[in-house]
Design goal:
four-stranded antiparallel β-sheet; 234 residues; mainly beta; 20 strands; 1 helix
């Protein structure tokens, strides 16, 4: 009983000390370099823009989309939809263009949909949810082409329940909700370099800012902020 109470107290303390804002069903987060802000996507199809301190400066309903990941670029935002598509959203006009993800015979289902997105060069990496079977824990490598997004490669990373992903310092940082862990993954050598234990919550997205802070989106309705030093990440 004492051990359970200690764990509960530790969780509550971490939750309160690192939470910077409340966003319902936060499912993805991305740092915007040109504006020093963060874009947050949620499961209800809403896009948010917040400051590094958590102030909400934009809230816009894009439509009836189950958004699961986001990338902030200079002029547009790319969002991953669980059911197998990407949205290109103009940051100024907020106009939406939907691109269907196609190729390699891949079929998207409720329990094996897109959960995270990262951009490396001109390609987009989409992590697919698999809560139990490692052989289905894949990353789809996608190239945008006109009105669709074509799958050019598939990587089996074997990370269970990969719920969010970010490309940083030439590596992929993948969070697992089920495992409450952050995996530092070398996508070129297809191996996990390091595992970082996270506080217990529903991790759904990860990003880094220019001041060595890490932001995590919590599907239970919050955004958390940690320093790289706190999580022992170089």
């Amino acid at each position: 009983m004492r051990k359970v109470l200690i764990m509960l107290f530790t969780t509550i303390l971490a939750y309160s000390s690192h939470k910077i804002t409340d966003i319902p069903e936060a499912s993805g987060i991305s740092y915007c370099k040109n504006t020093n802000t963060l874009m947050v996507a949620n499961d209800e199809g809403t896009l948010y823009e917040i400051t590094p301190k958590g102030k909400i400066i934009l809230k816009h309903k894009l439509g009836d989309y189950d958004l699961e990941g986001v990338i902030c670029l200079k002029r547009e935002v790319i969002l991953a939809v669980e059911g197998g598509s990407l949205l290109r959203v103009n940051r100024k006009s907020l106009n939406v263009k939907k691109l269907k993800v196609r190729g390699r015979g891949v079929k998207f289902r409720k329990k094996s949909g897109i959960e995270g997105i990262a951009k490396i060069g001109k390609l987009y990496y989409l992590t697919i949810q698999s809560k139990k079977r490692k052989k289905r824990a894949n990353i789809l490598v996608v190239k945008l082409n006109g009105n669709s997004a074509h799958i050019v490669d598939i990587i089996n990373h074997k990370i269970i329940d990969s719920a969010g992903m970010e490309y940083y310092n030439k590596k992929l940082y993948i969070v697992s909700d089920k495992k409450d862990k952050l995996y530092i993954y070398d996508y070129r050598k297809n191996r996990v370099l390091k595992k970082v234990k996270l506080d217990k919550f529903a991790q759904e997205g990860i990003t880094f800012d220019r001041d060595n802070n890490i932001y995590l989106a919590d599907d239970n309705g919050a955004i958390f902020k940690y320093s790289k030093r706190e999580l022992k990440i170089k």
